[in-house]
């Protein structure tokens, strides 16, 4: 899992340290709704990842989201 | 003249076509989407449906996924008050595309369209309590919306009355908080 991606997501969403430990829990169980997920998608977009329609959902964990981001080129291109 | 994007990375918004009515009728026939949208549980006939769909509407677009080419929702601006420069906005997302985040790109594209085309200063959104509760805990929502008020026990659904939150998004707030959205809305050639 990319710590850099995780850190940017946490910063964008303003999560505290407690939430940062829950990387394997579905994000909806952390109180993340569709709007938060859109913000995550924008963070990943700005980091160079091309996130497709089926690649994000509130049922996914942070670990899964970060893995998808790296697989889709996060960090390779900076816009 | 300011260029208005009609596409984001993952969505397109386009006018409603005759061929969309069957899909829209099915969409609003589902309990969850009709409850959260303007019909509030009513089940109009197919003939009434078209009339109701456009009643009080100033602008309305279908949101499509650019990758799947699927229709994912509808965004609507209604009850425009040009004297006070306010309007109401509603959005319906197909249940099979909910909880994914990206369909909301279409909603914010629509917001940008409205502020670009109309001399409006504030848009209102209504959200039943079960959705508004999430808003309260969402930093993303707080960055964009202001909770203007709560209509207590306003809406009857599934055996109980629910509070309805009235949220607003002002032009000035959108200009600042909406910048991250606009900056990622595709290349220049993507703009309509």
Brief summary of the model shown:
The complex is a heterodimer of chains A (79) and B (192). With 79 residues, chain A is mostly helical. The mean pLDDT of chain A is 81.
Largest beta sheet of chain B: what is the strand line-up? Answer: 1-2-3-4-5-7-6
Compute the CA-based radius of gyration of chain A. 11 Å
Strand percentage of chain A: under 5%
SSE order of chain A: HHHH
Distance between the termini of chain B: 13 Å
Determine the most extensive contact between two protein chains. Answer: A-B, 25 and 26 residues
Q: Can you count the beta strands of chain B?
A: 7
Residues in helix, % of chain B: 25-40%
Structural class based on helices, strands and sheet pairing of chain A: mainly alpha
How much helical structure, as a percent, in the residues of chain A? 40-55%
Please report the number of helical segments of chain B. Answer: 8
Average per-residue pLDDT of chain A, rounded, comes to 81
Total beta strand runs of chain A: 0
Morphology of chain B: globular
The stretches of 5 or more residues of chain A where confidence is low (pLDDT under 50) are none
| Mean pLDDT score of chain B | 86
Radius of gyration of chain B (Å):
16 Å
Main beta sheet of chain A:
none
Shape of chain A: globular
């Amino acid at each position: 899992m990319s710590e850099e991606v995780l850190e940017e997501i946490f910063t964008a969403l303003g999560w505290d340290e407690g939430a940062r430990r829950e990387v394997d829990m579905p994000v909806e169980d952390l109180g993340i709704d569709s709007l938060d997920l859109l913000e995550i998608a924008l963070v990943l977009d700005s980091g160079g990842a091309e996130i497709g329609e089926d690649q994000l959902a509130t049922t996914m964990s942070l670990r899964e989201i970060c893995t998808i981001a790296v697989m889709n080129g996060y960090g390779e291109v900076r816009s | 003249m300011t260029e208005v994007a009609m596409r984001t990375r993952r969505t397109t918004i386009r006018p409603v076509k005759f061929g969309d009515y069957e899909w829209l009728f099915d969409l609003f026939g589902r309990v969850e989407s009709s409850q959260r949208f303007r019909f509030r549980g009513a089940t109009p006939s197919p003939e009434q449906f078209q009339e109701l769909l456009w009643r009080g509407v100033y602008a309305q677009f279908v949101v499509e996924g650019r990758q799947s080419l699927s229709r994912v929702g509808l965004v609507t601006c209604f009850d425009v008050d040009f004297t006070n420069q306010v309007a109401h906005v509603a959005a319906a997302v197909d249940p099979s595309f909910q909880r994914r985040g990206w369909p909301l790109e279409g909603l914010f594209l629509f917001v940008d369209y409205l502020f670009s085309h109309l001399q409006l200063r504030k848009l209102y959104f209504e959200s039943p309590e079960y959705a508004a509760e999430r808003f309260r805990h969402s930093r993303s929502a707080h960055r964009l919306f202001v909770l203007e008020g709560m209509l207590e026990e306003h809406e009857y659904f599934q055996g109980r009355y629910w509070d309805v939150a009235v949220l607003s998004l002002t032009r000035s707030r959108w200009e600042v908080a909406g910048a991250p959205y606009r900056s990622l809305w595709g290349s220049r050639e993507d703009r309509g």
